[in-house]
Write a structure and sequence with these properties.
187 residues; alpha+beta; Glutaredoxin; seven-stranded mixed sheet; two-stranded antiparallel ribbon
């Protein structure tokens, strides 16, 4: 059976889950909960990205790339969430470990745990053979409608710059040509 991938222009699959986040005020990593319903209630956009595994070699390159662009997501009124099929304890251990020792250190955005595989399955990114998620990126507007999705295999990293550009183009509400950036002409 092939996974069902959500459709652009339709309601995004609802999700809720345990997250691990770094609280910069308290200088502490802690557990929390997150749900798409609550994000929509706050009238925020959502950028949900899946990655295969904690403690891997390729995933940190994307995770840190998203972290470097965090302010751009924040400026666009978007909640950024990383998600893998690992447990919240694995996420916490990875976040507590320094980058120089194979960890990811403290992030500006949360990592959601999906050990039940429900979220990855509902978004059509679960690799059932390996039990991990493909590199899927989903942009959901403040009404819960899926407006963009990309899915890469586990061995190909994604362009966070393109994710930011796509989010900005979607929020412009205009026809945006290839390579469009904020401040440039739309069609």
């Amino acid at each position: 059976m092939t996974p069902t991938i959500p459709r652009i222009g339709k309601s995004a699959p609802l999700f809720e889950g345990d997250i691990v986040r770094y609280d910069s005020r308290k200088k502490k990593i802690h557990y929390d909960k997150i749900s798409l319903v609550n994000i929509i209630a706050e009238k925020k956009w959502t950028v949900l990205f899946f990655y295969p595994r904690d403690f891997s070699s390729l995933c940190p390159t994307e995770i840190h790339s998203f972290n470097r662009r965090f302010k751009d997501f924040e400026k666009a009124n978007a909640v950024l969430i990383g998600c893998s099929t690992d447990s919240k304890n694995s996420h916490k251990a990875w976040m507590e470990r320094p980058r120089t020792k194979g960890g990811i250190d403290k992030l500006s955005y949360p990592l959601m745990a999906d050990p039940s595989l429900k979220v990855a399955t509902s978004y059509g990114v679960l690799d059932k053979e390996d039990g991990h998620a493909l590199r899927g990126t989903f942009i959901i507007n403040d009404e819960g409608i899926l407006l963009s999705l990309t899915i890469n295999p586990p061995y190909i990293g994604r362009s966070v710059d393109e994710t930011v550009r796509t989010l900005q183009a979607l929020q412009s509400g205009k026809l945006c040509p290839a390579g469009w950036r904020p401040g440039r002409k739309t069609l």
